[in-house]
C-alpha cells in the first residue's frame, strides 16, 4: 500500500515534467516482449498476450489523459499469421474480448477506434466486432486509437502504388501530379498525421515493417521493458525523452531556433 502510494506520487511528479504544449501528435508503439515475459514466469505465451492487454489500457488511458491526439498500436503484423495456429487464435480471441470489454470505456472517454491493415484477412467474428466498435465510436474526437491488424508497411505501400497506377491508367491523375500528399491520401493512414514518436519495447531495435513511410522524421525510442510491464510511468519517460530532443527535419540547429 505504502509502496503503491509512493509510486503514484512518483508518477504524478514525472507527469508534471511533460510540456503539454509540445506533445507528440502521433505516438506509435511496437508492443514487443509478451512471449519472453510469459516465459520468464514459466507460463505459456498466451499468458503474456493476456497481460499485454493491461499495458494497452495503460497507454490508451495515459495518452488520452495527457491530450495526445493519435495513438497507433502494432497489434498483429502480416508476418504474425505464420505463428502457431493456437497462438493466432488466442490473439484473435483476446482482440474480440478486449473490444467487447472496452467499448464503454472508449465511449466514456470520447476515443475513436480505427484500424489499418488488411482487416478483411481477419476472421469474420473479429472483423464484425471491429466494424461495430469503429461505427459506434466514429464521432468521438478526443483521441484516435488505431490498431494495426494484419498490417505490413510494404504491403501498404504496394497497395498505394497499385491504386495510384490505376488512377493514372484511367486518366484520373497525371503522373506529374503525384507528390507526397497524393501518396499520403492513398495509404491506410490517410487520416493520420506523420508519426512523431515511435516506441518499441523489449530491447529489440528494429522497425519490423511498421509505418515505414510515416516514420520518416519520427523520434525513435527503445526500451528494455517487456510489453506486459509497460505502464503510464514508462510512457511518461518516453515522452519526456522525446521532448528533450531537437527535431530538425533536415535543417540546421540555428535554422529552427
Ligand atoms: C509481441 O510480443 C506482441 C504481439 C505480437 C501481439 C500484441 C498483442 C497484445 C498486446 C494483446 C492484444 C492487443 C489489443 C490491442 C487488445 P511477442 O509475442 O513477439 O513477444 P516475444 O518477442 O517475447 O516472443
From TrEMBL:
Record keyword Magnesium present: yes
Keywords, ordered alphabetically: Magnesium, Metal-binding, Transferase
Q: Tell me the superkingdom of the source.
A: Bacteria
Instruction: Give the stretches traversing the membrane.
Output: none
> What's one GO MF term for it?
transferase activity
Ion transport as UniProt keyword = no
Q: Which CDD domains match?
A: Cis_IPPS
Name the InterPro entries on file.
Answer: UPP_synth-like, UPP_synth-like_CS, UPP_synth-like_sf
Which coenzyme or cofactor does it need? Mg(2+)
State which Enzyme Commission number(s) the record gives: 2.5.1.-
Sites binding substrate sit at 33-37, 45, 49, 77-79, 81, 83, 200, 206-208
What does the Swiss-Prot or TrEMBL cofactor note state? Binds 2 magnesium ions per subunit.
Name the positions where Mg(2+) binds: 32, 219
Spell out the catalytic residues: 32, 80 (proton acceptor)
The UniProt entry's coiled-coil ranges are: none
Pfam families linked to this entry: Prenyltransf
Q: Which NCBIfam families match?
A: PRK14830.1, uppS
Per the record, the similarity remark reads: Belongs to the UPP synthase family.
Record function comment: Catalyzes the condensation of isopentenyl diphosphate (IPP) with allylic pyrophosphates generating different type of terpenoids.
Q: How does it assemble?
A: Homodimer.
Fetch the HAMAP family from UniProt: ISPT (MF_01139)
Which PANTHER family does the annotation name?
DEHYDRODOLICHYL DIPHOSPHATE SYNTHASE 2, DEHYDRODOLICHYL DIPHOSPHATE SYNTHASE FAMILY MEMBER
The name this protein goes by in its record: Isoprenyl transferase
**Organism for this UniProt entry:** Corallibacter vietnamensis
Amino acid at each position: 500500500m505504502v509502496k503503491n502510494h509512493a509510486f503514484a506520487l512518483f508518477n504524478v511528479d514525472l507527469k508534471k515534467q511533460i510540456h503539454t504544449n509540445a506533445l507528440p501528435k502521433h505516438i506509435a508503439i511496437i508492443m514487443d516482449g509478451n512471449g519472453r515475459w510469459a516465459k520468464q514466469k514459466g507460463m505459456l505465451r498466451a499468458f503474456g498476450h493476456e497481460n499485454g492487454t493491461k499495458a494497452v489500457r495503460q497507454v490508451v488511458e495515459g495518452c488520452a489523459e495527457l491530450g495526445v491526439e493519435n495513438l497507433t498500436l502494432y497489434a498483429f503484423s502480416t508476418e504474425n499469421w505464420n505463428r502457431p495456429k493456437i497462438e493466432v487464435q488466442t490473439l484473435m480471441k483476446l482482440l474480440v474480448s478486449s473490444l467487447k470489454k472496452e467499448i464503454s470505456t472508449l465511449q466514456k472517454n470520447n476515443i475513436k477506434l480505427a484500424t489499418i491493415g488488411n482487416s478483411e484477412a481477419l476472421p469474420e467474428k473479429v472483423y464484425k466486432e471491429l466494424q461495430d466498435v469503429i461505427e459506434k465510436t466514429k464521432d468521438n474526437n478526443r483521441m484516435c486509437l488505431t490498431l494495426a491488424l494484419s498490417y505490413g508497411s510494404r504491403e501498404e505501400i504496394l497497395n498505394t502504388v497499385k491504386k495510384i497506377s490505376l488512377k493514372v491508367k484511367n486518366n484520373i491523375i497525371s503522373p506529374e501530379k503525384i507528390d507526397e500528399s497524393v501518396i499520403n491520401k492513398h495509404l491506410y493512414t490517410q487520416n493520420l498525421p506523420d508519426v512523431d514518436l515511435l516506441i518499441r519495447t523489449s530491447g529489440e531495435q528494429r522497425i519490423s515493417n511498421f509505418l515505414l513511410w510515416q516514420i520518416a522524421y519520427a523520434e525513435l525510442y527503445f526500451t528494455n521493458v517487456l510489453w506486459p510491464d509497460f505502464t503510464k510511468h514508462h510512457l511518461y519517460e518516453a515522452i519526456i525523452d522525446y521532448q528533450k530532443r531537437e527535431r530538425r527535419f533536415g535543417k540546421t540547429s540555428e535554422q529552427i531556433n
